[in-house]
User: Fold Putative secreted protein (Por secretion system target) from Dyadobacter jejuensis.
Amino acid sequence: MDLGIVSASALPVTLISFESEIVRTGVELRWRTTDEKACSHFELQKSSNALEFASLGSIEGSSLGAYNFTDSAPLKGINYYRLKMVNQDRSAELSKIIAVDYSADAIYTMVQNPSQNGSFTVYTNLTNPKFTLVHVSGKQVHLTVSRTHANQYQLTLKNYTEGVYVLRFESGGTVINKKILVK
Assistant:
């Protein structure tokens, strides 16, 4: 979604691109620039309504021309992002607004499938998910769940047999089922 560019003043920096991508750790924001002559820094801003923005973080200008920043705690639903490009004299320009749909049922990634030694990592943007693991025979398996980062959980099985299982994620009415192979 392109909501336009707002300019406070002309800056000695040209924004070539500003893009986003959903990754296993959240939303990665990438931008490229040219002609960075007196750029002080870039402030990343985030909003839930495309009207009121809050600072997400900042990155110093380096004249390299390629930057990235990961929002490790995106909101469920639509997230709006923009860049505030700040000159050394503190004049600033705002980029176009980009929108990212971070829907709970569409965004999750599992790694180590198959699992190794009955342990695997799950990435999900669900809030306080409940995990259930069921063998294809119908037997529920005990899991130990440890939250290791913002959207990352380490799941460890006890007394399991190798085979195909269904991992169920539940949170706030959202249910996701994923087949996994446990070795």
